[in-house]
Amino acid sequence: MSHKRPNQLFRNKSAKIAAIPMIVTALFVFVGGTAWTIVYSFTKSGLLPRLKWVGLQQYERLWDTKKWLVSIENLFIYGLCMLILMFVIGFILAALIDQKVRFESVFRTVILYPYALSFVVTGLIWQWILNPSFGVQGIVRDLGWASFTFDPLYNPDIAIFGVLIAGLWQGSGLVMVLMLAGLRGIDEDVWKATRVDGIPTWKTYVVVIIPMMRPVFITTLVIVTTGIVKVFDLIVAQTGGGPGIATEVPAKYVYDLMFQAQNLGQGFAASTMMLLTVMLVVIPWAMLEFGGSKRHG
Amino acid sequence: MAEQEIMIGPRGPKPRKTFSRRNIFLYGTLAFIAVYYAIPLYVMTVTSLKGMPEIRLGNIFSPPLEVTFAPWVKAWSQACTGLTCEGLSRGFWNSVQITVPSVIASIIVASINGYALANWRFKGANVFFTILIFGAFIPYQVMLYPLVIMLREIGIYGSLGGLVIVHTIFGMPILTLLFRNYFTSLPEELFKAARVDGAGFWGIYFRIMVPMSLPIFTVAVILQVTGIWNDFLFGIVYTGPENYPMTVQLNNIVNSTQGVQEYNVNMAATIITGLVPLTIYFISGKLFVRGIAAGAVKG
Prior knowledge:
- Helices cover about 70% and strands about 0% of the residues of chain A.
- By secondary structure, chain A is mainly α.
- Chain B folds into two domains: about 10-70, no CATH class; about 90-245 and about 275-295, MetI-like (MetI-like fold, Orthogonal Bundle), CATH 1.10.3720.
């Protein structure tokens, strides 16, 4: 009658063996890899990584490089515009679709499909549409407005906005979906109550709904921000960083220095700066989300 | 009599008129927005079906006067990347060879992770899980080079196998989260009953968890196929020219500086590259949305 009890040690062992890939990834790639890059950003690595300490020299050089400064400036402009416009457009689209419209799924499908496309495809499409001779500018000129100028990809001053147009087109559907989920999560009674009180719809959105959607906004903020910092393929495909260095971004700078210019130290320093930028957003968020109250589920 | 008349009268809230001012504004705006989002796909399609002379004369919005599939054929089998002229077909097959094993490997690994985390919590498991989730936010650039070294040490840097491992690693955070949350939501009695019946770690996984989780596996497949197919960075860093995925080859074709730009071929190539994720998107519909909602990390 001996009922075999599951051996505690064996039970743990099996799960642990199964989790080896996760443990290896977490420790060696995510923690180890990140630490390795940070450590080597303080060395004089060139073609190959070398442990020859040079202190903050790589960082000093980095912040002395025109291309890096332009990259940071672009990331800032692109990021700020992207954040604001993604939120505004995403929210308005979600609010419009939430008006119990017919053919809702058709509208949703059309607005979200760009998100299924890669950044390379997105960049190339918009490179074509913004082509000054054949695209939007050419068409308006053909209509008779001969002096019309709209050539974001050929004018260094506004080239980053050409990329912004493409980025918004690709990603705003995602924000719409997230916001729509947020709107749908709000109790119908809230709407009934404000209607009874005679509060106009727009005011209900501003005063009641938006504050209630704070968690959704925060999640969206984190997703959009990490996406912005990672922007790379879109630039490579649409502008190649040009004209000149007008649309360079940090992610591309890192790639160029590490794999083209073979200046690893600069690449490590630049990628560490990228990490720092992301952490400035993620750590406060994580503390808000997981730090204060106990986690559920 | 009077009572009956009341009963006959309309009930429920007053129906809104179909052509009220509000509706015209609402549907007008939505239709305008939908057209804006749809235009690039339209422009791409019509451009790819025109001959070059027509492109030079007309505008990008006009439908083709003479439909030709020559640009599609050329994009598929003859377009030049600056080095070779064998079109996108090679990149397509490379992408297939990359995507299929990467999707399978990443989903197997992540589903087992999720299962271990949900049902077999061992000491320290949550530490690794937290690291994993944080890892989702670390810019890839930070881990690019250490991974190059690791793959080089194993001797698979530049090969398809190496890229499969990279995709498995970087797909792990979100997929593990997805599976963990799903397995946690399954009734615990099932797991306990199987334990009482003497089933072990793998027995429960294969006989109970996997068969019960087909929807989440489908979501994971959609998420991974689109994600890996659309990848550019890992493809360019971890493979060589002979293994470049389709996105990299597409970029090389369109942005190659040699020769005259053939916009119709470029656009045909662009559509062909986007066709796989687009097809998945239009077929899967709600599941795709569920996938990206899951990607929207929510512990």
